[in-house]
Design a protein that fits this description.
46% of the residues lie in helices and 15% in strands. The chain is α+β, with helices and mostly antiparallel strands and 369 residues long. It folds into two domains: 3-185, no CATH class; 203-356, no CATH class.
Length: 369
């Protein structure tokens, strides 16, 4: 998730754990700090952008290593707060705060589609449930509201029992609401996935290769509109479904994949790395002699965050040091946000890029363009 969400989550966890035993603002501060620590791994450079991408959310996001790191980290707030309670009791409380702030950070990240290697050192298989978008105000706002009583106690009646109790209760309420929202996202994702599978079964694409993978993940900032990505051997298909669409079938646009290009590039380390990390939701394409690989999970056609040049045309292909070529250059942000709002509310309209290109309206049959 985004940094603000992680800070708010860590702070709320801090108040829930230590808000009744120390100044709530202090518990919130340490929770926010510890909730930020795992993402400091972005400062580590591994030599190329693909390594940087696939090693982010790795060891610093693994509860095994977080548990070990919590032991020394907790000594700092315990020592600073030593006057408020016995040393042993203080350390146990702060240790629980630090550990929960770190672990909940990793678990929240695992709810997004990116891929968090939470099982290290036992396996590096990334976990990316994809049931919440990386920025979702409906998740973050309850936590921020719940933190207000703790923040306002800074220097004001910080030793009084009732204000502390109020801050503690509010933090628990905020955590309950935000957690319920995450649970809703999992339920909504499954509802959409069931609908996609039902449509594919009842309206098969004539002559198309079988479906290999299906990805259902929320559109930006909400859990009402969902992006659906279908992978076949020679194409991938993208569609959108709003929970307000009622019984209307999902319309898909289709883009070709060249299987022979993957056969030529499959031995390139960078290609293998992205193929593994993206769980097969990737494309290889060639333009002006440059071979690029794109993670199709994060973005929307044709704008993807993670796209990299990995080879140049030769016989055979010549691998190059990966170079980031993804981004949103040319994206009309205003038009995209207007489309997002209207499509979320159930209007059956194409994304702005397809409208600008004059793409014909596609029938509600998977795989047709």
């Amino acid at each position: 998730m985004d940094s603000i969400s992680q800070i708010a989550l860590g702070a709320a966890v801090g108040v829930a754990v230590m808000g009744r035993r120390t100044a709530p603002w202090k518990a919130a501060l340490w929770g926010a700090v510890c909730g930020t620590l795992p993402d400091l791994d972005v400062l580590i450079r591994y030599g190329d952008p693909i390594s940087d991408m696939t090693r982010h959310r790795a060891h610093s996001h693994a509860p095994f290593w977080q548990t070990l790191a919590s032991l020394p980290i907790a000594l700092i707030p315990a020592w600073l707060d030593r006057r408020n309670m016995p040393a042993r009791q203080s350390y146990r409380g702060w240790l629980l705060l630090v550990w929960l702030a770190l672990v909940t950070h990793a678990l929240l990240d695992a709810m997004t589609v990116y891929g968090t290697q939470i099982a290290l050192p036992f396996t590096d298989q990334p976990v990316g449930l994809g049931s919440v978008f990386i920025i979702d105000p409906l998740y973050t706002l309850p936590l921020l509201v719940a933190l207000w009583p703790a923040v306002r106690l800074r220097g004001v009646a910080a030793t009084q029992r009732q204000p502390r109790l109020r801050a503690w209760r509010m933090s628990l309420a905020g955590l309950a609401v935000s957690s319920a929202y995450l649970a809703w996202g999992v339920v909504a994702q499954q509802l959409v996935l069931d609908r996609v599978r039902s449509q594919l079964a009842s309206m098969p694409s004539v002559g198309a290769p079988p479906v290999e993978r299906i990805l259902v993940t929320p559109a930006p900032f909400n859990t009402v509109l969902w992006r659906v990505l279908i992978m076949r051997s020679d194409r991938y298909e993208e569609g959108f479904y709003s929970l307000l669409d009622n019984a209307r079938p999902i319309r898909f646009a289709s883009w070709r994949i060249d299987p022979s290009l993957f056969e030529q590039a499959r031995d390139i380390a960078a290609v293998r790395r992205i193929a593994w990390f993206s769980r097969g939701f990737f494309r290889l394409d060639e333009k002006d002699g440059s071979v690029r690989i794109t993670d199709l999970r994060m973005g929307q056609e044709p704008f993807y965050v993670f796209s990299f040049e990995v080879a140049r045309r030769a016989s055979p292909l010549q691998a190059v040091t990966p170079r980031a070529v993804g981004g949103r250059s040319g994206l009309d942000l205003g038009a995209s946000l207007r489309w997002l709002m209207r499509r979320t509310l159930g209007e059956d309209i194409d994304p702005p890029v397809q409208q600008q290109a004059g793409a014909p309206r596609r029938p509600p049959v998977p795989g047709q363009r």
